[in-house]
Amino acid sequence: MSASVALISPAKLNLFLHVTGRREDGYHTLQTVFQLLNWGDRMTFTANDSGRVTLHMPGSEVPLQDNLILRAAQLLQRGTLGAAITCDKQIPMGGGLGGGSSNAASTLLALNRLWQLDMSLDTLQALGASLGADVPVFVGGHSAWAEGIGEVLTAIHLPEAWYLILKPRCAVPTGEIFSDRELTRDSLPITMAAFFQGVHRNDCEPVVVARYPETGEALNWLRQFAEPRLTGTGSCVFAAFGTREEAQAAQREVPGKWGSFVAQGVNESPALRALA
Q1: How far is CA 51 from the centre of its chain?
Q2: Which pairing describes strands 229-230 and 162-167: parallel, antiparallel, or unpaired?
Q3: Which of 70, 91, 155, 187 could make an S-S bridge to 142, C-beta 3.0–4.6 Å?
Q4: For residue range 68-127, what is the model confidence (pLDDT) as tens digits?
Q5: What are phi and psi of 226, to 5 degrees?
Q6: Distance (Å, rounded) from C-alpha 45 to C-alpha 55?
Q7: pLDDT tens string 238-263
Q8: Is residue 89 annotated as part of the catalytic site, yes or no?
Q9: Closest CA to 166 of 99, 96, 108, 112
Q10: pLDDT value of position 101
Q11: 259-266 and 28-48 as β-strands: parallel, antiparallel, unpaired?
Q12: Catalytic (active site) residue 167
């Protein structure tokens, strides 16, 4: 067996995020919209008969036993099935862009194809949910309205805007924000129509800004161009623009202390397109 797949494992933005409750198991219920991007980590997968999965991921600080790529592969592996995986990381850790979850989903999709397992997307999404609440949306491969703990998904069609994303110099641990006593946990559910009419609040933003003031500074800087938003629990912040040229013009003015990139929102994942 020797076949290969190369794909972009995409980043995501949360266009809004409301925390509507907390379950007995500690998970929070929420409403959000996942906007997939045409930008992310470059991954390659080469199948073999070694019975081993290897990962080459330069610069990663995640211990191999905790790496979601290997954990995803282990969910599918059996017998002599093996693979060599590479991941060229572009998505920053601790930024709220879903990099680890996206990598796990891309691994499930690619190895399901290369190992000819013929598992359905529903099955792969269920497996992905065991790795993290954001994995199913990346497996599904479409921008989506999400409820539950993020796994109850409805594919939606979003305007394919251009986004300027800023990365402050801090990494924000998601668990730290969701365990903060000041986090709003009782937002009333909204309708999809309300979102499309302009409801864009992120309940995590006040907590993140209080703990990581540089995120607030980045939000305030973006405000001169467009409505600034926090994605997930941060630390990345973003604003939407009508054209790539407008986003790039704003990017040229970004202070040198922050990382930045411009990407287009897409309704279908580039990983899904690569495997079509």
Answers
A1: 30
A2: unpaired
A3: 155
A4: 999 999 999 999 999 999 999 999 999 999 999 999 999 999 999 999 999 999 999 999
A5: -170, 175
A6: 9
A7: 999 999 999 999 999 999 999 999 99
A8: no
A9: 96
A10: 97
A11: antiparallel
A12: no
- Using CA of residue 172, residue 174, residue 179, residue 182, what is the dihedral sign? positive
DSSP class per residue in 63-86: -GGG-HHHHHHHHH--TT-EEEEE
Q: What is this structure's pTM?
A: 0.96
Domain covering 1-276, topology:
Ribosomal Protein S5; domain 2 (3.30.230)
HSE-CB for 85 with a 13 A CA cutoff: 31
CB 66 within 8 Å of CB 142: no
Instruction: Find the catalytic residue in 41, 134, 167, 203.
Output: 134
Closest CA to 6 of 87, 97, 98, 125: 87
Hey, what's the torsion of the CAs at 103, 72, 34, 262, to 10 degrees?
0
- Which tokens go with 212? 């990581």
Residue ranges covered by each domain of the chain:
1-276
Which of 12, 41, 167, 203 is labelled catalytic? 12
The rounded distance, in Å, linking the Cα atoms of 30 and 186 is 10
What are residue 237's DSSP bridge partners? 166, 230
